[in-house]
Amino acid sequence: MLATSPNFPQNARRAMADASLQKAMARTRPMFPARRAAAVAALPEFEALRETGKQIKDHTLANLDFYLETFAANVERAGGQVHWCSDADEARAAVLKICQDAGARTVTKGKSMISEELGINKHLEAHGIAPVETDLGEYILQLRDEPPSHIIAPAFHLNREDWEASFRKAHTDLPADRVFHERRDILTEARTRLREKFLAADVGITGANFLIAETGSSVIVTNEGNGDLTQTLPRVHIALASIEKVVPTLEDCTSLLRLLARSATGQDFSVYTTFSTGPRRAADLDGPAEYHVVMLDNGRSAMIGTAFQDMLRCIRCAACLNHCPVYGTVGGHSYGWVYSGPMGSVLTPGLIGVDQAGHLPNASTFCGKCESVCPVKIPLPKMMRHWREREFERHLSPATTRAGLRLWGWFAQRPQAYRLLTRLMARTLGKLGRKKGRFSSLPFAASWTEGRDLPAPEGDTFFTRYAREQRAGRV
Amino acid sequence: MSKDAILGAIRRGLRRGPLPYDQDLALRVRLERHPRHPIPARSKVARPAQIALFQRNVEKEFGTVLRVADAAAVPAAVARYLAAQNLPSALAIAPHPELQAMPWGEHPLIALREGRAQASDAVSLQHGYAGIAETGTLMLPSAAERPTTLNILSETEIVVLRASRIVGAYEEAWDLLRAELAAPAGGMLPRNVMLVTGPSRSADIESVLELGAHGPRRLHIILIEDDPAALG
């Protein structure tokens, strides 16, 4: 997938002016946090489970080589194959070869963010194989040729009228004047249409929420059941997974599953949680004859042992997106690559480079909400700060930013000068702004005041006031 | 080889080579013992309360539960459900001995076809392996007598479950599965193990929940009260 992350400022500006997007965001934004809060409130052990989840992932990452080898050995023991792929090119080639060997003409797909990393749909199409997205949200995005804007609710940015228009345009064999009375009618049309695709497909491609080393299983979690139809009906099943998806045992996976749905959609458990182990057995009446796991690295192994290793704990629940004021304002497409929101702001520079994605870790208010809802306690704000430091060290930030930071740094290292300057500024600005109480424009800060007002200082600096209160014995 | 490259990069990041023998052994022991993590207290209750919790959670997730006294009462319960829901009386049914032993002959209007589901099947009847009270979840492992397609292809799925097969937490269901199905297969899990919690749904259109996305629109569980300790 081609990144437009370098254009984040322009993307964000466009998104904020997009009335249709803002309408969709305004409707959906409050829903996820409310649902999560209710699910968490109903499970007293939730906070303790977050610590358990973190420890499971930390243990796995500290022994990732062992668990990946064990996983692969157990897949093979069950009659499946693991295809190790260092980068997207290798993974695309592996998927294409499996499809070609199977003589595939059509491929059904369950929801997979890895497949977005690979841009697998375009690759298959270029080789004469038709991929069909089967998750309802992904299906409409395929019709509209758009990327997902949210890692678990891909059509987060669309309104009902968008759905109706896209279906009318794509399903031309149906009466053009048909009426969609309810959302259910849209759903039913998709169900009918996709049913034919499920039955015709030669290969089914799914993602994997987890891989289990102990059993060699891939796990998918869905509500629609599309993932299960995708991996059960065709003759060949390919599970796309990245290396950090592995966990040691069924018990480890179970503890993480208790966190996943509650953090994601606010359900206690998703409707379908399915463990696949190898191809169909001799006596089975259904299931795929071939089972492949495409195991992708794509930059992740390089994060191990660095300040960004903790990011590999992520279980892709999207709680950080759902609670982020920045994501909630600019939407997922602004981030310009596969992953968005706080987790995207940390992961994307790691996978495609901070030179490409340097804007993303800067697009944060550091309110800390993301870390507080993360089911595996990833210190997202801290890691965004690390990226900002790297960006600065590598001279990637604009000259004015760097000059400003250098100036500030000079004062920050000289407390006397710093206090003198801030006292001067607080007094001047306090006097100038006494009448209005705020400034709607300031010299040298036009781009800052363009979007908001600066409240006028009350005349004192924090230090002055603190010293005064201390003398009075109040602090 | 990409495998070596990936494992090598991981080890470089971890600042070590392949694990020394004792650490490797310790991890193998952990896999062997697969220790449990803390389990939420909600399902640690007396048997009758556990069954009630299962039922309440199924209903919360838009499934339905009907309790019957014994296995012999299942065909009549199926017939009544089909009539009440205005469904056709043709069923794809799992070729499981427990289901085969039921008195279907007393209901000649129900047409059974044993085997996997076909796309044209409106209703399927599945054998429930275990129920998990914690979230009202069914465990449905694939087997010749429990085809996976019965869980996902039809619009209505009926699952017959014995109350004695309801456990509190997922971990207890894994224990059953390991002992009964994996151990005889040399430790290998069945090809497919589905954990099903309610009927299929989607909230992809404007974040509003609609039932019946791609899998069954209805999930009906017929619960056989075969557990004397559970009769509360």
Structural description of this entry:
The complex is a heterodimer of chains A (475) and B (232). Chain A is an alpha/beta fold. Chain A has helices at residues 8-16, 19-28, 31-41, 46-62, 64-77, 88-101, 113-118, 120-126, 136-144, 160-170, 183-200, 226-232, 250-264, 319-322, 327-330, 341-352, 354-357, 359-362, 369-373, 380-393, 399-412, 415-432, 446-449, 462-471, and strands spanning 81-85, 106-109, 130-133, 203-206, 210-212, 217-222, 236-242, 246-247, 272-276, 290-296, 438-439, 454-455. Among the domains of chain A are: 43-296, 3-Layer(aba) Sandwich (Rossmann fold); 414-471, no CATH class. Chain A is built from 24 helices and 12 strands. Chain A is globular, with a radius of gyration of 25 Å. By secondary structure, chain B is an alpha/beta fold. Chain B has helices at residues 2-14, 21-33, 47-60, 74-84, 97-100, 170-182; strands spanning 64-68, 90-93, 111-114, 123-127, 130-132, 137-141, 156-162, 166-167, 192-196, 201-202, 210-211, 218-224. Chain B folds into 2 domains: 1-35, no CATH class; 45-230, Rossmann fold, CATH 3.40.50.10420. β9 of chain A pairs antiparallel with β9 (192-196) of chain B, so a sheet runs across the interface.
User: Total number of β-strand segments of chain B?
Assistant: 12
CATH architecture descriptor of the domain at 43-296 in chain A: 3-Layer(aba) Sandwich
Q: Nearest-angstrom radius of gyration of chain B? A: 21 Å
Q: In the CATH hierarchy, what is the superfamily of the domain at 43-296 in chain A?
A: NagB/RpiA/CoA transferase-like
Q: Quick one: biggest sheet of chain B? A: 6 strands, parallel
- As laid out across the biggest beta sheet of chain B, the strand order is 1-12-7-4-2-3
- Please tally the β strands of chain A and state the result: 12
